[in-house]
Write a structure and sequence with these properties.
The protein is an alpha/beta fold and 443 residues long. It folds into 2 domains: 115 residues, Roll (Urease, subunit C, domain 1), CATH 2.30.40.10; 293 residues, Metal-dependent hydrolases (TIM Barrel). Helix content is 39%, strand content 22%.
């Protein structure tokens, strides 16, 4: 059983109402037991008796950021394929490198990414990659929450590709992965999905659709990341991408798309009707010259919207602060509207929106009964003065250096530069560097 924890002396961000409360947070058994206003000092003292006290003075206690779309092991390819458009980036560099990855490579790459997530205030991510048992092993060992996303593809350069039989057996594979990962750990869940429409055959997609019908779960995939992908969909499928996926029954129980930069009104109509969300990745889209996702357009359609980093190979960091700032700034410029989006809406997307997209409905708020997936953000450092508004601070001024503490399921995994995750940072870095040298040398 975890030791109880009291985050004492800070301000609690009430995300529902966009207000800061003078309150202490009492955590037991991975859950928030009480948010005690300091006018209830005696109650707080009694509730925290015997607990580990963490000084939160000068900090805001808030829900951790949720990374709604990422490829954790792709830290291996950080800065190896910069300044290329997506199609060349994938086909000339990424797919050939990925074909050389082993299960152990994916495990160590995931460990490296986890350290970056925690340092940056991210408490959960939705990860799409192959060798998912290795990804899950890393997250369980570290104690971080992860939604594993189905990653089937028909691309022969990917380790996921074996023979034509794999396409015929896509239904069995998805069902097996869902059973295995849904029961693996309270920290791990599974989202049905494939890589994309352009890397996945119709035959494989039909097998996935059968799994959707049986499991009655949402479906997630890359979609409309580039203008080329969006414009060629109609000639390939006789429909736009969302229409095509929906015609196969993939969105009958909701789900989500990753990127969603180049969207038709008809596609947004389907997303609204079917409860399909969008995980936006503005830094990766900007770096790959893919375009700017229209945050306010999704809001007008009342489509659930979250934020993700994409992989470190196309970003090149795993930093939600950068995503918030970039989304805000590029939307101002691209759509010529200085009034929108509002910082509060951006922060909600990075926390509540992403959590709902990921089906982490018990990790939404700093409220009694919710999972203790929390961060402490310093509001007393030089880049916070004068402090006037929490959301403006988070979007415009704060950065990863302001993360004081990251907690998942009531366990402090990162605090003041130190990790408590079951492995040594320097050992992981050395291992990743050695493995990258092997991959780059063609072995």
């Amino acid at each position: 059983m975890l030791m109880a924890v009291c985050l004492k002396g800070g301000k609690v961000f009430d995300l529902r109402n966009n207000v800061l409360l003078d309150a202490d947070v009492i955590i037991e058994d991975g859950k928030i037991r009480k948010v005690a206003g300091r006018s209830e000092g005696k109650v707080s003292d009694a509730a925290s008796k015997g607990a580990r006290i963490i000084d939160a003075s000068g900090c805001v206690v808030m829900p951790g950021f949720k990374n709604a779309h990422t490829h954790s092991p792709m830290v291996f390819f950080r800065s190896l394929a910069d300044d290329l458009p997506l199609e060349r980036w994938l086909n000339e560099v990424i797919f050939p490198y990925e074909a050389k990855l082993t299960q152990d490579d994916v495990y160590f790459g995931s460990l490296l990414a986890i350290m970056e997530y925690l340092k940056n205030g991210i408490t959960a991510c939705q990860d799409m990659y192959f060798f998912q048992d290795s990804v899950a092993k890393a997250f369980v060992q570290a104690g971080m929450r992860c939604v594993l996303n189905g990653s089937l593809t028909s691309n022969a350069k990917s380790p996921d590709y074996d023979t034509q039989k794999e396409e015929d057996a896509s239904y069995e594979r998805i069902m097996s992965e869902n059973d295995r990962f849904s029961s693996l750990s309270p920290l791990i869940s599974y989202a049905l999905g494939v890589h994309s429409t352009y890397t996945t055959s119709a035959r494989l997609m039909k097998g996935a659709s059968r799994a959707v019908r049986e499991l009655r779960k949402g479906f997630y995939l890359h979609m409309n990341e580039t203008a080329f992908e969006a414009s060629t969909a109609f000639s390939k499928f006789g429909a736009y991408n969302v229409q095509y996926a929906d015609s196969l029954g993939l969105f009958d129980y909701g789900g989500g798309i990753f990127h969603g930069v180049h969207m038709q009104d008809a596609e947004l109509d389907i997303m609204k009707a079917k409860g399909v969300g969008a995980a936006l990745n503005p830094c990766s889209n900007a770096k790959l010259n893919s375009g700017v996702p229209d945050f306010e357009r999704y809001a007008r359609y009342r489509i659930l919207t979250g934020l993700g980093t994409d992989g470190a190979s196309s970003n090149n960091s795993l930093d939600i602060f950068k995503e918030m700032w970039t989304l805000q700034a590029l939307n101002h410029i691209k759509f010529d509207n200085i009034l929108a989006p509002k910082p509060y809406d951006i922060v909600r997307a990075a926390t509540e929106g992403s959590a709902k997209f990921m089906k982490l409905d018990s990790s939404l708020y700093v409220e009694e009964g919710q999972n203790a997936d929390l961060i402490m953000v310093d509001i007393g450092d030089v880049n916070a003065v004068p402090f006037t508004d929490i959301c403006k601070y988070l979007v415009y001024s704060a950065n990863v250096s302001n993360i004081r503490m990251t907690m998942v399921a009531g366990k402090v995994l990162y605090c003041d530069g130190k990790y408590d995750i079951g492995f040594d940072k320097n050992d992981v870095i050395k291992e990743v560097v050695a493995r990258l040298n092997r991959i780059r040398n063609g072995k």
